[in-house]
From TrEMBL:
Keywords: Membrane, Transmembrane, Transmembrane helix. Coiled coil: none annotated. Signal peptide: none annotated. It comes from Massilia mucilaginosa. It comes from the Bacteria. The chain crosses the membrane at residues 7-25, 45-72, 93-113, 154-172, 184-205, 225-247, 259-280, 310-330, 342-361. This is Acyltransferase 3 domain-containing protein.
Length: 375
C-alpha cells in the first residue's frame, strides 16, 4: 500500500470521527437550524458542516471495510477469515475497559449532574439504560436488535453492525470457497437471523461497509477505474445531495421517500469508495519509498487516526458528562442560540473528548479498531 493512499485513509479516518463528534456536541449545545434567530454566514457554514454527521459514519464504515479487505488480502486464504475474527474480538476485549468507563461516567452524570434533565428529560436521551443485562448484551453485540445500547452511548449500535457484518462476510466467504454444506448452512442461518433480528437500517450500513471491503480486496489497480476528477466530483455530489435531502421523506412518493432516506448514505459510501479506488495505486512511487522517514505531518496524521475509532465509537458518555457539567455547575443551558461562547464551548468539548480518546488508546493499545495493516 503506497504512502499516499495510507495518508488518505488516516486523514479521512480522523476527520470522519471528528465530524461525528462535532455533530453530536452541536446537537446538544445549539438549537436546531430551523430555530435560529439570525442566519449569519458563519452559522450557516457551521450548521452545514456539522450536519454531515451521518455522512461521516458512511466514510468511517468504508474505511473500516478497506482495512478488513486489506487484512484479508495479505493473509493466507486458509487463515484469513479466522484470523480476522480473532483479531477483531481481541480488539473488542481490549476496548472493554472503555465500555465500563462509559458506564461509570453515565452513573456519575445521572446521580450528580442531572439538574438540566440531560440524562432523563432530554428528548433524545429520555432513557439511559444502565444495567448488567444491557452491559453483557452490548459486550456480545446484541444491540440494537435484542437490547438497547448501554448507557448514553448510542453509537454502540454501529459497533454491533460492524461486528455482524464481519461475521457474515467470513461465513459467506468460507462457504463460497469450500461449498461444504455445513458452512453454507451456517452462512445462510446467520443471514436469516440478521434479516429477522436486525432493524432495516443494518442493511444500508452493511452495503456501505462491503464497498470498502471491495476496494481493499480488489486493489491496487495499475490505472484508475475512474478519472480522479470524476471520482472527487461523484463524492462531492453525493455529500451535497445527502446533506440537502436531510430527513425529508417527501422527495419521492411513499414508500420510496422512506427508502431513499434509509439508503442515501450508500451513495456517499460509493463516492468515497470511488475516490479511495483511484488513490489505491501500484507500484509505489520513488518519492514515497518505504525507507523514507515520515514527516511531522505524517506522524501527527497517524496519531490522530490511531485515536479515531475510540473517539468515534465511545465519545458519547464523556460528551454527555462535559455538557452536564457546563449546565449544572456553570449554568450553560442546553440548545442555545449560537454565539462566541457557544462556539468556544463546542470546540473545548470536542478537543477534550478527542484528547481523552488518545489517552485511552495509549493505555489499552488498540489503535484504529485493531484492523489497520502495517504500512
Amino acid at each position: 500500500m503506497n504512502r499516499r493512499f495510507a495518508t488518505f485513509l488516516d486523514m479521512s479516518l480522523w476527520i470522519s470521527a471528528l465530524m461525528a463528534l462535532v455533530y453530536h456536541v452541536r446537537f446538544l449545545m445549539f438549537v436546531d437550524y430551523d430555530a435560529l434567530q439570525a442566519h449569519s454566514g458563519i452559522d450557516q457554514v457551521f450548521y452545514f458542516l456539522t450536519g454531515l454527521g451521518h455522512e461521516s459514519f458512511a466514510v468511517f464504515f468504508v474505511i473500516n471495510g478497506i482495512f478488513v479487505g486489506l487484512f484479508l488480502r495479505h493473509m493466507p486464504a486458509a487463515q484469513g477469515e479466522r484470523a480476522l475474527l480473532a483479531r477483531w474480538w481481541r480488539s473488542h476485549l481490549a476496548l472493554l475497559p472503555v465500555l465500563a468507563l462509559g458506564g461509570l461516567l453515565d452513573l456519575a452524570g445521572v446521580h450528580f449532574l442531572n439538574g438540566s434533565g440531560l440524562y432523563s428529560d432530554f428528548p433524545a436521551f429520555s432513557s439511559v439504560t444502565l444495567s448488567w443485562t444491557t452491559f453483557y448484551a452490548n459486550l456480545f453485540m446484541l444491540q440494537p436488535a435484542l437490547a438497547p445500547t448501554f448507557g448514553s452511548n448510542g453509537m454502540l449500535y454501529l459497533y454491533a453492525y460492524l461486528w455482524w457484518s464481519c461475521c457474515l462476510l467470513v461465513l459467506l466467504r468460507r462457504a463460497w470457497r469450500s461449498h461444504a454444506p455445513r458452512r453454507v448452512a451456517a452462512g445462510a442461518a446467520l443471514l436469516l437471523g440478521l434479516a429477522v433480528w436486525m432493524p432495516p437500517a443494518f442493511w444500508p450500513w452493511l452495503t456501505v461497509w462491503l464497498l470498502g471491503v471491495a476496494v481493499g480486496l480488489g486493489g491496487p489497480w495499475p490505472r484508475p477505474l475512474l478519472h480522479p476528477l470524476a471520482a472527487w466530483a461523484l463524492l462531492a455530489a453525493a455529500i451535497l445531495f445527502s446533506r440537502l435531502a436531510g430527513a425529508r421523506t417527501d422527495l419521492l412518493p411513499a414508500p420510496w421517500g422512506e427508502l431513499l432516506l434509509l439508503w442515501k448514505y450508500v451513495i456517499v459510501g460509493m463516492g468515497f469508495a470511488a475516490v479511495a479506488s483511484v488513490l489505491y495505486r501500484s507500484p509505489m512511487s520513488a518519492a514515497a519509498a518505504p525507507g523514507a522517514a515520515p514527516s511531522f505531518f505524517a506522524r501527527l496524521n497517524r496519531h490522530l487516526a490511531d485515536s479515531a475509532s475510540v473517539a468515534f465509537l465511545f465519545h458519547f458518555p464523556l460528551m454527555m458528562l462535559l455538557t452536564a457539567i457546563g449546565a449544572d455547575l456553570f449554568g450553560h443551558r442546553l440548545m442555545q442560540q449560537p454565539g462566541p461562547l457557544c462556539y468556544a464551548l463546542v470546540g473545548t468539548i470536542v478537543m477534550l473528548c478527542y484528547a481523552a480518546s488518545h489517552v485511552l488508546v495509549r493505555c489499552i493499545g488498540t489503535r484504529a479498531g485493531g484492523l489497520r495493516p502495517t504500512v
